[in-house]
Design a protein that fits this description.
The structure is a single chain. With 285 residues, the protein is an alpha+beta fold. It has two domains: 2-79, Immunoglobulin-like, CATH 2.60.40.2250; 82-194 and 203-239 and 270-280, C8orf32 fold, CATH 3.10.620.30. It has helices spanning 117-124, 130-144, 158-164, 169-182, 271-276, and strands spanning 2-13, 18-21, 31-41, 45-50, 57-62, 68-79, 82-85, 146-147, 166-167, 187-194, 203-210, 213-217, 228-234, 243-246, 249-260, 277-280. A four-stranded antiparallel sheet has the order 3-6-1-15, with no helix packed on it. The chain has a four-stranded antiparallel sheet with strand order 4-5-2-14, with no helix packed on it. The longest helix has 15 residues, at 130-144. The protein is globular, with a radius of gyration of 19 Å.
Length: 285
């Protein structure tokens, strides 16, 4: 399935600063970049680099003496996904996890799984099938946390969200990751472009390591799981933030788009299908 993704970010700088942006679609075995274009106005010093552990593609920019900055990115991406039957999936013992997967069991800055362990085991500990367990976790979050735009900030953690019971996609995702890790399911943060997301924006959801593959879930239920284009992965948003700012810079405008490429037809995976099976977007890293 081919998608055309785009983003335009505008910044105002008070004094010379550095930005590290993560808006490029990833390159991996199941996500092929057909073409892409990047433009930065005015012309400034920039550097592109890829983080080996995750495959995240970063862009480092120095504003120098410029007060205004505009970045435009667009790409056509060919994405593949696979599905599996939930009933055939078994839990992977911690003793059998690969070294690369182990870090996604640990508490992290925004996902304090150690502080939510008792809650997680009380609510979900008796569910044996790992797919059903993660579905129950994301359903509980959807039913108990209200999606309210602007209700949280960059400091909000999973523990804050379960206390305040409001948040946005990032907060829903952090809470889901923390609860999954608390019941010994490796979980990682996923940022990406999302087809038919309303309103259009960068989207956050999670991937859980189930049955030997990374499987995607979305506690907000706002995105089609087979309509996601991967930008970044990490332990939480700190590893895969759209923008990390070092200095005095403010985002003044952000526009995000995701459309089907010409000639493509999209068939979303419905709720009943997701109860019976999972969606994997490929290995990532």
């Amino acid at each position: 399935m081919r998608f055309h993704v785009s983003s335009e970010l505008k910044y105002a700088a008070m004094f010379p600063s550095t930005l590290i942006l993560n808006v490029h679609a990833q390159r991996n075995a199941s996500q092929v970049i057909v073409n892409e274009h990047l433009a930065v106005v005015p012309r400034i010093k920039l550097e592109e680099f890829t983080q080996e552990a995750t495959g995240n593609r970063f862009l480092r920019l120095e504003t120098s003496g410029h007060k205004k900055l505009t970045l435009k990115y667009s790409a056509t991406v060919d994405c593949e996904y696979q599905t599996y039957r939930a009933g055939s999936v078994e839990s992977t013992l911690v003793s059998q996890l690969s070294a690369a997967t182990i870090p996604y069991l640990f508490p992290s800055r925004y996902c304090q799984s150690d502080r939510l362990s008792r809650l997680a085991w009380d609510l979900f500990g008796k569910i044996e099938n790992p797919h059903e367990k993660v579905v129950a976790i994301t359903d509980w979050i959807h039913d108990n946390v209200e999606y309210v735009r602007g209700s949280t900030d960059s400091m909000t953690s999973a523990y804050d969200t379960v206390t305040q019971r409001t948040g946005v996609c990032r907060d829903f995702t952090h809470l889901a990751i923390a609860l999954c890790r608390a019941v010994n399911i490796p979980a990682r943060y996923f940022s990406g472009y999302a087809y038919e997301l309303e309103p259009p924006d960068f989207h956050a959801c999670l991937e859980c390591f189930i049955g030997g593959v990374w499987t995607v879930f979305d506690a907000t239920r706002l995105a089609h799981l087979n309509g996601l284009i991967r930008i970044g992965n990490g332990r939480d948003a700190a590893d895969a933030a759209v923008a990390s700012i070092f200095g005095s810079v403010k985002c003044t405008s952000m526009t995000v788009g995701c459309q089907l490429d010409k000639g493509e037809k999209f068939q979303p995976i419905d709720r009943k299908q997701l109860n019976r099976g999972g969606v994997a977007l490929g290995p990532g890293k």
